[in-house]
Amino acid sequence: MSRRRALWLSVGGVLVVVMVAALAVFQPWLLFVDRTADEGDDPSAVVGTADGGLTDTGVPSAHGGAPTRVVLVSAELIDGEHGTSGTVIVYRRSDGSRYLRIDDLDTSNGPDLHVWLSDRPSGGDCGGCRDSWGIYDDGTHVHLGTLKGNRGSQNYEIPDSADLSAMRSVVIWCDRFNVAFGTAPLA
């Protein structure tokens, strides 16, 4: 085999390895594949909005023994590194448990997406400067789970042990690239 042919085969082999590795890390096909979540909402009746927001500890009374819930906070998702829209609502049920509902989510699909409550403000920081959307893993956050779908409606239980008093935003977080796809304010 000629020296020139061996060189081209080596270069070609390296390029194939680099391309396979890049495909495994970036998963570009996810940009063209949507996952839709269609979870129904909790069947309990909404009986009001809590006066104290996230820190409200009052448990709504059950009407005739039927479970109820109150809205602790509601907000619209805003764009992060990707266009994102939808509504987030945090509820407290009459049994004292809390959950986050995301209604009508519309964002990009991506690898390793999660739903967090964060102590960082919604909207990034520094007016869009470099790494403005990468701040959410720098502070305290509560991991609620893997994003169930980049489109549709979905529910996430909030652990009983989670202290929500310092939480300032809901974040759709890409753990692979350490960036927020979108956020919503909690205060």
Distance between the termini: 70 Å
Question: Secondary-structure element order, as H and E?
Answer: HEEEEEEEEEEE
Bin the strand percentage.
35-45%
> Strand tally, please?
11
Number of helices: 1
**Portion of residues within helices:** 10-25%
Low-pLDDT residue intervals, each spanning 5 or more residues: none
By CATH reckoning, the class of the largest domain would read Mainly Beta
CATH-defined architecture of the largest domain: Sandwich
**What oligomeric state is this?**
single chain
Largest sheet properties: 6 strands, mixed
What's the rounded overall pLDDT mean?
85
Throw out a few tags for this protein.
11 strands; 37% strand; five-stranded antiparallel sheet; DM13_domain; Immunoglobulin-like; DM13 domain-containing protein; 1 helix; 2 domains; 187 residues; mainly beta
Overall description:
It is a single chain. This protein has 187 residues and is mostly beta strands. The protein has two domains: 1-32; 34-185, Immunoglobulin-like (Sandwich), CATH 2.60.40. 13% of the residues lie in helices and 37% in strands. It contains one helix and eleven strands, in the order H-E-E-E-E-E-E-E-E-E-E-E. The chain has one helix at 3-26; strands at residues 36-38, 45-49, 68-76, 78-79, 85-93, 98-106, 113-118, 141-146, 151-158, 169-174, 179-185. Strands 1-9-6-5-3-2 form a six-stranded mixed sheet, with no helix packed on it. The chain is elongated.
